[in-house]
Each structure stands twice: as C-alpha cells, then as structure tokens.
C-alpha cells in the first residue's frame, strides 16, 4: 500500500480511496497528536472499508459528510508539517477523532455518513446548510472544521448544486473541490438547481484565487487522474479558461444522460448521515 509517511514536499501527490461504480474519491485527513480525523465524501458501499482504515490507524473520526466545523472561523496559516500517511488517505501529521463531511448532496451515489455514524460511534455527519439536507452539523461559507492542530476552511462554491462547498486546508496547500472543479473539467449544471454562470464565478472567485501550487483534489475522476493544481486548472482546464458566456453555452449543450442512481441517491442524501444503515 505504499510508504506510511511522506513529507509534504514529497514529489508524488497522495492517492485517494476510490469507489469504482461512481468514480468517487474519499479522503481521510487527521492530526497525529490528537488522533482526530475527518473523512471527506464517504460512499455507502465503501463505508466499512473506511471505518476499518480509521480503526487500523488508531484514529477517532469526528465528522463524515459535507465538511463543517465545530468552531466557526478560520485558523491562521501555520508551519504544521502536513504529511501523507499512505496512498488512499491524506493525513496531516495524523490524529484519533474522525468526522465524515460531504462537499454536497451527491446524485451519483449514496453518502456513507449514516453507516459511519453506526460503525464509528461519536462521529457526526456534516453538510452545507444550503444543501437543504439533514445532518448532525450544518456549515456555511467561512466556517472551519477543526481537527487537532489543523482546520479546513469552508468556501461556498455553488453552481453544480446550490449547496456545494470546497474545503481548503488552513495553510492553503490543498483544496478538496467536490464536483465544482474536476481535473480538466467541472461538475454538470443541468439538474439539482444547477447554474452554469454561478459555477463559473464560484470556481474563479473561490478556487482560482488560491496559490497556484495549491493541490486540487476532486470528488470524482473518470480518466484515472488523481490530483491537479490551481495553476494547472487556471491555465489548462478546457471549460474554465473560456469566457463566462462561452462556458455557459458549453454547459447548456452537454446533453449528458441522467445519473443512474439519482432517483434514489438524492432522496437518501437529503437525509445525509441520518438514513438508516442497510441491514
């Protein structure tokens, strides 16, 4: 599974936990001293895998689901020596308390937040208040999720859905962009109250304003790619390098099929982390 620890300056970006049916990435971050951890965008079918990893690493999961924080407000930057514990999970000097958080109300899979609340007692589900979904904790633009010495800043990035958020590590070294910004692409805007113009402004104002070397970790990838940077996407993303008017025209003419799981995934995810685990 790879080396157990890699310094932040490691030339190889971390890998992510992958769910193949919906091509979803799940990310695990933690603080080594407190053992507190956060799980971003867990998937129902792979929740037992995620829970087992949390236990193996001696972590305590605080939140699962849409990223939200215990304490509003953004911690200042710090030289905390973030590290990667292993491929398939991203860790920040690692910790024991774990928390599942979702970047938005997904349409292509059911969140694993509910099952994780059962498998890991004490962890809470988190999602944006603007998603309209149920959760233990609701977050808004500017809130921070704290785990040990680290924090994720919540940046509202609507457009794919009204409740989409991007989670930015407090030192601005990495951002978890959900479906708002994908590698050389972006989330669709033709369902769930999506809006192409809103998405364009969200990415340009909330993500592309981060440092160019900030790592971009999306919620999905369909081409085997795992990580990008703000500078790469600012200059190479074929959709988001267009003008706003051109972008809207492209997004309005994608003619994509409906996600296969949307009819049961969205209703379940509206009860994010609250739904009854399957028997």
From TrEMBL:
Stated name of the protein: ETHE1 persulfide dioxygenase
Top-rank lineage group of the source organism: Eukaryota
GO function terms (MF aspect): identical protein binding; iron ion binding; sulfur dioxygenase activity
Keywords of this entry: Metal-binding
Gene name in the database record: ETHE1
Entries under Gene3D superfamilies matching the protein: Ribonuclease Z/Hydroxyacylglutathione hydrolase-like
One GO CC annotation: mitochondrion
InterPro entries assigned to the protein according to its UniProt record, in alphabetical order: Metallo-B-lactamas, Mito_Persulfide_Diox, POD-like_MBL-fold, RibonucZ/Hydroxyglut_hydro
Domain Metallo-beta-lactamase: 23-220
SUPFAM superfamilies from the UniProt entry: Metallo-hydrolase/oxidoreductase
GO biological process: glutathione metabolic process; hydrogen sulfide metabolic process
Record's keyword annotation contains tRNA processing: no
Lineage, uppermost ranks: Eukaryota, Metazoa, Chordata, Craniata, Vertebrata
């Amino acid at each position: 599974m790879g080396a157990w620890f890699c310094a932040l300056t490691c030339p190889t970006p971390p890998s992510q936990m992958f769910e193949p049916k919906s091509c979803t990435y799940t990310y695990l971050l933690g603080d080594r001293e407190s053992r507190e951890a956060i799980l971003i965008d867990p998937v129902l079918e792979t929740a037992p895998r995620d829970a087992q990893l949390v236990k193996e690493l001696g972590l305590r999961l605080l939140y699962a689901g849409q990223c939200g924080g215990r304490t509003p407000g953004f911690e200042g930057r710090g030289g905390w020596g973030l590290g990667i514990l292993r491929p398939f999970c991203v860790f920040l000097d690692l910790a024991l308390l774990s928390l599942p958080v979702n970047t938005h109300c997904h349409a292509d899979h059911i969140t694993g937040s509910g099952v994780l609340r059962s498998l890991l007692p004490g962890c809470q589900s988190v999602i944006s208040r603007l998603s309209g979904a149920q959760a233990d904790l609701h977050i808004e633009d500017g809130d921070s999720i704290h785990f040990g010495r680290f924090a994720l800043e919540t940046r509202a990035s609507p457009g794919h859905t009204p409740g989409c958020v991007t989670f930015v590590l407090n030192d601005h070294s990495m951002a978890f962009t959900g479906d708002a910004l994908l590698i050389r692409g972006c989330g669709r805007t033709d369902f769930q109250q999506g809006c192409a113009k809103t998405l364009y402004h969200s990415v340009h104002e909330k993500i592309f304003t981060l440092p160019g070397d900030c790592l971009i970790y999306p919620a999905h990838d369909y081409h085997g790619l795992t990580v990008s940077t703000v500078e790469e996407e600012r200059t190479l993303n074929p959709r988001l390098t267009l003008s706003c008017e051109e972008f809207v025209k492209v997004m309005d003419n994608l003619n994509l099929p409906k996600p296969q799981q949307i009819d049961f995934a969205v209703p379940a995810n509206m009860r994010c982390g609250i739904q009854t685990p399957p028997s």
